[in-house]
Write a structure and sequence with these properties.
With 131 residues, this protein is mainly β. 3% of the residues lie in helices and 45% in strands. The protein contains 1 helix and 11 strands; from the N terminus they run βββββββββαββ. The chain starts with a strand and ends with a strand.
C-alpha cells in the first residue's frame, strides 16, 4: 500500500522553527518529485516548495523563500521541509505529495508547485504559529 506520512508539525512562537518530515511506505521516494503544500482555513491549497527526483532542483513560493528549505534523504525514504523564521500567516495544515515523472531526464529534473501532477498525498500535519 502506497502511503505518505507527514510529521513534525506543532505549535511554535513567531520567529521559531520546525522541521517537517515526509516518509513513504510501500514505495521508494527516489524516483519521485516531492512537493509540500499547505492549506489554511478558508483558503485554497497552495504550493510551498518542491524538489525534483534527480539533480535536486528545488522551487519555493515567494512567501517562503529564504525561510524554508526542502531536502531529501533517499536512504531514509524521507523528504524534509525546514521552516525557519515562522510567521502567524504560515499557520496551516502542511501536506506532502509525490509525483512520478516520465523517465526522461529533462522531466525528472523538474518539480511543480501546483497540485495537479502529484499522484499520492499524505494526510497532513498541523503547523500553528502563535504567541
Amino acid at each position: 500500500q502506497f502511503q505518505l506520512v507527514e510529521s513534525g508539525g506543532g505549535l511554535v512562537q513567531p520567529g521559531g522553527s520546525l522541521r517537517l518530515s515526509c516518509t513513504a511506505s510501500g514505495f521508494t521516494l527516489d524516483s519521485y518529485a516531492i512537493g509540500w503544500f499547505r492549506q489554511a482555513p478558508g483558503k485554497e491549497r497552495e504550493g510551498v516548495s518542491c524538489i525534483s527526483s534527480i539533480d535536486g532542483i528545488t522551487n519555493y513560493a515567494d512567501s517562503v523563500k529564504g525561510r524554508f528549505t526542502i531536502s531529501r534523504d533517499n536512504a531514509k525514504n524521507t523528504v524534509y521541509l525546514q521552516l525557519n523564521s515562522l510567521k502567524p500567516e504560515d499557520t496551516a495544515i502542511y501536506y506532502c505529495a509525490a509525483d512520478l515523472p516520465p523517465p526522461i531526464p529533462t522531466l525528472q529534473a523538474r518539480c511543480f508547485l501546483t497540485p495537479r501532477p502529484y499522484d499520492f498525498w499524505g494526510q497532513g500535519t498541523q503547523v500553528t504559529v502563535s504567541s
